[in-house]
Amino acid sequence: MTRLPLPLPLLSPHAAVPARALLPHARRHLAAAPAEMSSPAETAPAQASGEYPSPVSPPYPAASKDVELRRAMTASARSAAFAAADVVFEDEWLAVVDKPAGVYCDALLSSLPRPAASGSGDSATKPNLHLANRLDRDTSGLMVITKCNKVAGKLVKAFTDHKVKKTYLALCIGCPPTWEKIKICSGHGRSKHGAWRVYAMSDVGRLLPGGSSVRDMSTKFEVLGINGKGRFRDPYSFDTDEIELITVQGKGSDQTPSDDVKNSMILVRAYPQSGRTHQIRLHCQYLGFPIRGDVKYGGVIEWNGVECDGHALHAESLSFVHPVTGLPVTFRSPLPSWANEFISRME
To answer: Active-site residues: which are they?
Structure first.
């Protein structure tokens, strides 16, 4: 296994949360990695003038640039040749499709099968297709394509207002968490050189380089399995149960783990409560178990002797109120091969 040399900053506990719930001790040595991983040009202005807040997650590792370039070129070729999207559901107003990993979102518009793209069914009327949501290039799973402007506006607003409930599955490599369910709240924004980073909650609202500001983001996580131990189950309703809360305020101390501990395979389900760019990927990195193959955010480049061709993140389900009928609808995506393989070995 090859892992990028990426330091991992850790958590400061929320006042109401026991310290043991925040991060396994075995992962904490990563925070003490060489300081040269952070760009002096990036951190100096914030430290010298105090004008900008400092991120609490590391920058992209240098080696990720070449890996991302190779993956982008491969995805461009796949997208150009992409012939037909798998339709999970469709009616005259919208279609729910299953995006494969390694394909750009826009490729789904031109590859939507004729029946699903026919809009009202009138062959003389060309549908006006829109993507209601987007997924990262290497993320697989559910996307919604609308067929007219009015429906597009309603559904995009529902996503923007966080009225669409989403679940994701992620296969991570790192230190196993000591908790079963948690909610993590942090800041989110672009650092000086454009990289998405985690910021402290206390920095929310503060100005960032480029004129943007730190925004809040929160994700609920549920552990489904660790190293083949666990039980796969349907998405959980957090409304009736209290869960531990992590409020990100800064970097923490560290201790040294064994290789066996820090290389655990962990299957988690994520319930994003906001819709920030790379939100789940950033929070997995911060919690000490980056997603397998996610080289931007501390994930392994290869696993079991095989190079990862993308990150193991899957948009599993979507639930929302239909923008025309007003009825609640829920859609589930077939599981990707890496999830089925992990689940089949669970005891």
So the answer is: 136
